[in-house]
């Protein structure tokens, strides 16, 4: 069995209203990933537009991309060829530590 190592991940969060859940999901993902020792960058697509836009370098370096599936993500074509996980903003808010741990374990199998 392979050792579970921290991963490099990027995420984009958005919700229908573009207010609370967008930012709560981003904060939860960042907190869980950092607690697991992962490198994490999260872009928000909220009511005031795109914030913390992911750089090309961050996307290229990512082992996995996490996208919320509550509404469409702008510029999603940036992630072509990357491993993408789609989850609801509610799941990111409530289950980010579990999601990150499962991703780390899954990537260790590869």
Automatic annotation (TrEMBL):
One Gene Ontology cellular component term attached to this UniProt record is: plasma membrane
DNA damage recorded as keyword: no
Q: Which Gene3D superfamilies match?
A: 3.40.50.2300
State a single Pfam family of this protein.
PTS_IIB
Keywords in alphabetical order, please.
Kinase, Phosphoprotein, Phosphotransferase system, Sugar transport, Transferase, Transport
Task: Please report the stretch or stretches of sequence annotated as the PTS EIIB type-2 domain.
Answer: 9-105
- Give a GO biological-process term: phosphoenolpyruvate-dependent sugar phosphotransferase system
Molecular functions per Gene Ontology? kinase activity; protein-N(PI)-phosphohistidine-fructose phosphotransferase system transporter activity; protein-phosphocysteine-sugar phosphotransferase activity
Please name the InterPro entries in this protein's record.
Bacterial_PTS_Sugar_Transport, PTS_EIIB-like_sf, PTS_EIIB_2, PTS_EIIB_2/3, PTS_IIB_fruc
Keyword Cell wall biogenesis/degradation annotated: no
Q: What is the name attached to this protein's record?
A: PTS EIIB type-2 domain-containing protein
